Every structure is written in structure tokens, then in C-alpha cells.
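Q: My labmate handed me this sequence with no annotations at all. I'd like to see what the chain might look like in three dimensions before we decide whether it's worth expressing. Could you predict it?
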Amino acid sequence: MTAQPDAAGWLAERAALDPERVALEFGDSRVRYGELYREACVLAADLAGLGVGSGDVVATLVDDGEAFARLLWALREIGAVLLPVNLRLRPEEAAYIVLDGGAGLLVDAGGTAGQGAAEVARRAGALPQARMRALRIELLPGAVEFQRPSPREEMRDALALIYTSGTTGRPKGAILTSAAFRASARASAELLGTGPDDRWLACMPLFHIGGLSILLRACLAGSSVVVQAGFEARAVAAALESGAVTGVSLVATMLRRLLDVRGERPAPQGLRWLLLGGGPAPAALLERAHALGYPLAPTYGLTEAASQVATRLPSDTAPPLGERLQPLPGTELKIAGAGGESLPAGQAGEIWVRGETLMLGYLGQPEATARALEGGWLHTGDMGTLDDEGGLAVLDRRDDLIVSGGENIYPAEIEAVLAEHPGVLEAAVVAEPDPEYGARPVAWWVAREPGAEIDDLAGYCRARLAGYKVPGRFVATDALPRNAAGKVLRRELRARVSGENDGQQAPSEEP
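A: Here is what I predict for the chain of 511 residues:
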């Protein structure tokens, strides 16, 4: 059997096989695989000239998709580890990640991100800082020289160090190997039937696992990637309407905005799949998109599993549209009870994942790693069920579960009901302490028309939900706090709950 190339050889192999195929598109700019490989080699030589070598962690603070993609492959050419920093973090948050990840160099590409990189480097203890300009990488004037840090055994074979979004607390660095990304890419291609003739639209942040995985999957398959500078509904709609894009990855809020822009026009021709991740999507949104012919592929994914874990095939159009997600080939799923036992079909429990796509662990956190990977299974902290045929339905995060008077309440269920209200743009539900029941749900909602008021949301919910699920308060807000991947930061809402007193009050009911 022929040995599989490490990620450092993926681009070289693709360039040799198909040098003229377009690898990346940025507006009117086209970069072919042969050209991308040559450019990556030039940048890799600059990094090596600074002293960066195999296994060294290089942090990136780059808001230019073209620069990010080239830098990714330059780092792979020398076997360095990519640590992409979330552009939305405050300088002190970014500095924590850079320090925790053991980065020896911070690279930016100028622009807005470059303006903040100096402060991040300063807060990280005079970290060496370099800038990528066109096809050169040079230390900034006055920057300290790069000093190779001592190698860390736990980082062996790492391709990237991706920090969790921090939706439930301080971020942890997930160590992901080239083998994990390769297994994920090949399994995803097998499940969805993707190949060289496909064109991905990448409008998610490339520093996030979802965006990064698109670049890696495309190279392995020989596909093209159309990179946009973040999500802008009209730009995404225009790209899809060209008919040349075959696949796109979105989260629910992005899909809703896309549908609002495109109205009742049918799904664009040529689109073969629309991966929809970031948490359970409201049934009304799925039904709206399905009625217009969008090839929906609701997806469950995790940073700790190199992104995609399970996906509902676009060809599966039977209701309910958000269930029956199929695990990637080679990935095992288990619904576990409190003692780790496998629960029967239809019974809710924690989703466990096993397979070649899993992380090595969390950097510098052996106890957290042991808990997360106990017994070879990734304990996700997410709640779900499996049907008789092994199809997955994701309910919510275990940490978001609300236990009220002994009853389990899944926030996603309440959020889905609120999302069906014609005056509600979006909603998020968290727990609020209750002296009688232990906890009650409180709903934060955004009006579809800014400033609009809605009477009796409690009554609307009571007509559609059991009494114990009806939120005790409804709090109007201009926007929900989200991370760069579009996920709602519930911990921020929980922090607001105790001091919030301007919501509508719903009568208390027996749970």
C-alpha cells in the first residue's frame, strides 16, 4: 500500500497532478494549484529564514483570505503548526491564546488585523512579530528575533492548534493532526460525493475550524474554493446565483439572511449541498429553505473532531428535516447515559464520538483531555438521540440543559418556537435561578423590525409548548452576542440574567 502523504505534501501532490486547475478565487483573482504551490514555497523560505522549523507554533492574525490561504500552505511546507487567532477577540484575549499555545511568532498581513497585532504581541511578552506583504514575510522593524521554543511532545504531528470558541468558558487549544484532517476530508467527500469539479463557497471565518477545513478538503479533492471576506448576504447570493458554486457552509442565522435577500426565488441551479452547522436550526427555517429547493445538509461538527461529524444527506427530504444525520464513514456515534452506558434508540443522552478525526487532546490540560477522551470516545457535552438506523438528532448542549422542577428543558426547542413568530427575528434561551423550581427559562429575543414591541410572547409559547417550558421572562435586545462562528454566547446572556429586570413577566405555572 502506498504511504499517504503528510499535509506538508498535499499541495505539492495536487500541484503535480493538476497544476492548471483553479485552487482559489478571490473576486476577479484566480490562483491555480501550481501557482499556489510555488507561492507557498517562497513564503516557506522566508519563514525558514527567520528560524521557524517543523513543530514550531506560529500564530496568525490575518483578515485577508488570500493571505491566510497562502500562509496556511507555507506553514505546511516546513511542518510548522498553525495557530489561527480569532479576529474578534480583544487584545488581552488574543494574547492569552498566543501565550497558552506557545507561539514563537505572530504573523499578520497588515490591514485592520495588523493594526491590532502589535498590541497582542506586546501583551504576549514582546513576542516576535512578522508581516506578510504580497509574497514576502519579514520581521517588523524593532521586533525581537524569533527564538525556537523547546519542542512539546504533545504537539507531535500537529497540523493546527485550534482554540475552542469559549461558549462555555475559557478557550482550550485542540491539537489536530494532519491525519485527523485527512480522515475528515476523505470521509466528507465520500459521504457527500464531492470531487475535483466542485466549487466551495467559503464565507465563514478561515480562522475557524469550519473555514479552515474547507481549504484542506478542497486541496485533497482537487476542488476550487471561492473565498469571500466574511459573510455578507448579498455577496453570497450573487455568488450562488452565478450557478458555478456547488457547495456552501452556513449557520442558521446566515441561511435566514440569505433567504431574506433572495426572497421566494428558487434555490440557485448548480448548488448540490448546503451544509448547515452551528447548532440545531429552527424547523420553520428548514421548511422554508426546503420548499424553495435548497439542498439542505444539516450538520453536526466539533473543533475537537476536525469539524464535520455527522450530516443529513441532501437527498433525504422526509420530515423532520433536522434529524437523521448520518455519521461520516469511519466515525462512530454513541448516546451515553450518566454512567457511560449506551442508551437505546430514541432516548436522549450525551453524544459520544469515536474515530480517526479526533484531536490528540487539549494543549497543556491533561485532566481536561482525560475527561474529554475517556475510553477513546470524545465526550462532546452535547445532547442528542439516535434512531433505529443510527441517524442522529442533536438536541442541545448538556451545559445549556435547564432542569426545572425535575423536568428537562432544551433551550433549542423554545428558540425554535419563538423563531416561528412573525415578529421575532431570532431568540436565545438560558436558565434563570428560581426559588421554587430551581431554574426557569428566560428568553432573549430580537425583533424583526427594530424597536417593535410584541404583546404576550408567553401566550404564544403556551399555545405551542408544555407549561413548564414557557419562559418566565422575555427580554428584548438589539442583537444576540455571538462568536466568530455565529454561535450564540449563552454564557454572556447568563451573566446578564441576574441584573435584567425589563422583561415581560409570564405567570408561573406548575412544571
